Amino acid sequence: MLQKGSDSGQGNSSVLVVIPARYGSTRFPGKMLADLCGYPLVYHVYQQARKAKCVGKVLVATDDDRIRKALEPLGVPVVMTRSDHASGTDRIAEVAENCLEKIIVNVQGDEPLLPPECIDAAVQPLLENPQIQMSTACRQITESSWIQNPNIVKVVMNQKGLALYFSRSPIPYIRDAEQRQNIEGVYWQHIGLYVYRREFLLHISKLPQTPLEKLEKLEQLRVLENGYSIAVVPTNYEALGVDTPEDLIHVEKILKFREKEV
């Protein structure tokens, strides 16, 4: 059962989770406030993020007063941002300009099933290594339909666990047919969770869009194209975002099943 609350009450005070939430959505207008088991969709994301052990504070960043009015009675801290942001990263950066936390976590507002353990895992590299400026997460995939799906972003990493490239295309390409029979550990789905050092986030948000970023419509490529590194943490989390009303129905079934198991 969901509990009201305005902060996590635990965790690292230097880590802030920001959930960017805009009302408009091409495929699902108003989805952030869509009813999911009696609460707005984004409220479930907030509650999951609050459970992360490494997090000191969680808030929602929006430019729409409807979202603020829906969340504040539930005890959710809401920061109003400008309405001209081109991306969620830009909205996060505006919040970062006025915060004291040194590590900023961008959690997508349409991921109500995101486990808090996934957030902890993605933050850990920045807590352990001061040289790492940004991290994200991934999970192994073997389903052919997922590998071929352009809406499923794939990532390839080097031997040190740093991202080489992100793409909507199946990467890597397996040239030899006999090697296509065993793809264990070959394909990795990128999970849209980003962790930044505050100063680095402010820096990259001011950089212009890059050629590959424009082609793939993937913001993280701006980081790679400018010569910076992104640490990628493998997890077992199966990303299941809500992009359509049908997705919402599917997620609701999962949540109700979990409630029966408790």
Notes on the protein architecture:
By secondary structure, this protein is an alpha/beta fold. Helix content is 31%, strand content 24%. The chain has nine helices and eleven strands. The protein has helices spanning 41-50, 65-71, 88-96, 116-128, 144-148, 198-205, 211-216, 220-225, 245-261, and strands at 12-21, 35-36, 39-40, 55-62, 78-80, 103-107, 134-141, 154-157, 163-167, 187-197, 231-235. It has a seven-stranded mixed beta sheet, sandwiched between helices. A two-stranded antiparallel sheet has the order 2-3. It has a two-stranded antiparallel sheet with strand order 8-9. α3 (88-96) crosses α6 (198-205). The termini are close together. The model has no long low-confidence stretch (mean pLDDT 91).
Outline the secondary-structure elements.
Layout: E1 12-21, E2 35-36, E3 39-40, H1 41-50, E4 55-62, H2 65-71, E5 78-80, H3 88-96, E6 103-107, H4 116-128, E7 134-141, H5 144-148, E8 154-157, E9 163-167, E10 187-197, H6 198-205, H7 211-216, H8 220-225, E11 231-235, H9 245-261
Parallel strand pairs: 1-4, 1-6, 4-5, 7-11
Antiparallel strand pairs: 2-3, 6-10, 7-10, 8-9
Helix pairs in contact: 3-6
